[in-house]
């Protein structure tokens, strides 16, 4: 139970990668705050799964792009478990369009959630992470932030924006002993890739040396390492979890 007693807030954790991270950390003894925007039933399912494995979890509804709602999420966390040791900025959306067709609204929507949500949550929990002294900020970026991807100019810009943000926060946290890192998953089997046509997925897999998409657990295991005390001397890094896509 390497995460025993550590309080972890995971944004967008009712499903997909966030859910996998929440369940993994919960299994290892963490107190977990399950944030959701609209999937209330699924969020409660995650709590149940964690509790039936002997862990502690609570739900916190908040649209991460809304500062007041994120403030409320922090209050829920403090009331249930006290200050957070770990914040995982996982909530993210896509609004794909070839650039010439992309509307300013699609651009803004992706920035508001993917970067604005990270700003709001990080600022709300910054003092908690600092005061923990071995606190952890973990931002879920994407291989797309490194490589770009046709039709994802907004998403790629947001995801590579996370790299600079993480390195800067790593510097601002370092004196207190806490760390900030990014995880950059490759294509992972979740709802986000559900809509991708099989033909396109086959082409993607053909370009992955390990010859498969990532499973949620592949990402969760790396986040578990970064969230734990074992990663104390790793900060400002981007950890690729992409099956060797950039080899
Ligand atoms: P998903 O769509 O299954 O899950 C995203 C979660 O974020 C959902 O629970 C959703 O409700 C939540 N969310 C979205 N907007 C929110 C908001 N405003 N406030 C609170 N929650 C919100 O996607 P996923 O594949 O699990 O993606 C999780 C993260 O991993 C995202 O940041 C995504 O960009 C990143 N990522 C995914 C892949 C992939 O291939 N699936 C690859 C690289 C990176």
UniProtKB/TrEMBL annotation:
MF terms (GO), sorted A to Z: oxidoreductase activity
PROSITE patterns: ADH_SHORT (PS00061)
Highest taxon above the source species: Archaea
Ketoreductase domain segment(s): 6-196
Keyword Cell cycle in record: no
One GO term (biological process): monocarboxylic acid metabolic process
Family, similarity comment: Belongs to the short-chain dehydrogenases/reductases (SDR) family.
Identification of the protein by name: Beta-ketoacyl-ACP reductase
